[in-house]
């Protein structure tokens, strides 16, 4: 399959994942478990994982998902191209019912992201990007996403807006995590305020923070706190496809994937 066909497959898989998430989200109550790292896990995480994997595995490519991550490094280090998935990014936001959670699916080749899809289940907004081709945002309404459109990436782009769509805000704008504001991030924000004068701060959950920079709603997103590879891969692909940069901080080296330790270094999206 070529990269457009694979990205279309990711669109279809994210649709299935979002549907499973909403079926749980719409319940009056849902159970919450605690994983070994003390992070929350819900029935939505598990059901979305299964739905996504069922579709992506038809590509024949290996899959590394947050909810199926216990694959030995000795096995995955030999992967050339693979899917990197977070079935429900922002479980804390899901539990709070604030809508700021996403389905993240990225395609990784030789340790670098090459394409990504992010679906926001509550709003129905979809971001998709292929590095070297472009990035798009689809909002529900005028052009409903039929199965035929989801199965063809060029058709998807024709009913979506290429991003970044507009000029950056007049006031210098930073994106910050709603759940994970570190002292180092606060210090960085103060430094930017000294350079730029007035600074506007946007808080958001999950991978939406990378999307806000990608679409031009914010100038940058500093993340000086822990994240895992599946948290950032799809967002990085979309941001870079939109002409932005995602680099380690303060080294400014590229952010890479399929490391032995799947923890990301600090990074800056700009």
Describe the protein in words.
Helix 8 (208-214) runs parallel beside helix 9. This protein has nine helices and 14 strands. It folds into two domains: 3-163, Fructose-1,6-Bisphosphatase, subunit A, domain 1 (Fructose-1,6-Bisphosphatase, Chain A, domain 1, 2-Layer Sandwich); 172-269, D-Maltodextrin-Binding Protein, domain 2 (3-Layer(aba) Sandwich), CATH 3.40.190.80. It has 270 residues and is of the alpha+beta class. It is globular and about 50 Å long. Strand 5 and strand 6 (112-120) form a beta hairpin. It starts with a helix and ends with a strand. It has helices spanning 3-25, 43-56, 73-76, 91-96, 147-150, 153-158, 183-196, 208-214, 229-241; strands spanning 32-34, 40-42, 63-65, 81-89, 102-109, 112-120, 125-130, 134-138, 161-163, 172-177, 199-204, 221-223, 246-248, 267-269. The protein has a seven-stranded mixed beta sheet, with helices on both faces. It has a three-stranded antiparallel beta sheet with strand order 12-14-13. Strands 1-2 form a two-stranded antiparallel sheet.
């Amino acid at each position: 399959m070529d990269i457009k066909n694979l990205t279309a497959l990711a669109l279809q898989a994210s649709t299935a994942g979002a549907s499973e998430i909403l079926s749980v989200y719409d319940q009056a109550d849902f159970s919450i478990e605690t994983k070994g790292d003390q992070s929350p896990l819900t029935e939505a995480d598990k059901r979305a994982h299964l739905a996504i994997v069922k579709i992506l595995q038809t590509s024949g490519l290996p899959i590394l998902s947050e909810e199926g991550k216990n694959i030995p490094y000795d096995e995955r280090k030999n992967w050339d191209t693979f899917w990197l998935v977070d079935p429900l990014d922002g479980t804390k936001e899901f539990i709070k019912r604030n809508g700021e959670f996403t389905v993240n699916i990225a395609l990784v080749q030789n340790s670098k992201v090459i394409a990504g899809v992010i679906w926001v289940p509550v709003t129905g907004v979809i971001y998709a990007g292929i590095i070297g081709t472009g990035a798009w945002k689809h909002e529900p309404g005028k052009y409903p996403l039929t199965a035929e459109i989801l199965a063809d990436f060029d058709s998807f782009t024709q009913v979506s807006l290429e991003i970044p769509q507009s000029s950056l805000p007049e006031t210098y704008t930073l994106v910050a995590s709603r759940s994970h504001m570190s002292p180092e991030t606060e210090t960085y924000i103060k430094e930017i305020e000294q350079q730029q004068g007035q600074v506007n701060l946007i808080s958001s959950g999950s991978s939406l923070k990378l999307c806000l920079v990608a679409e031009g709603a914010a100038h940058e997103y500093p993340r000086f706190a822990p994240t895992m590879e599946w948290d950032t891969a799809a967002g990085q692909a979309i941001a870079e496809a939109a002409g932005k940069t995602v680099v380690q901080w303060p080294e400014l080296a590229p952010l890479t994937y399929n490391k032995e330790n799947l923890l990301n270094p600090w990074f800056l999206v700009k």
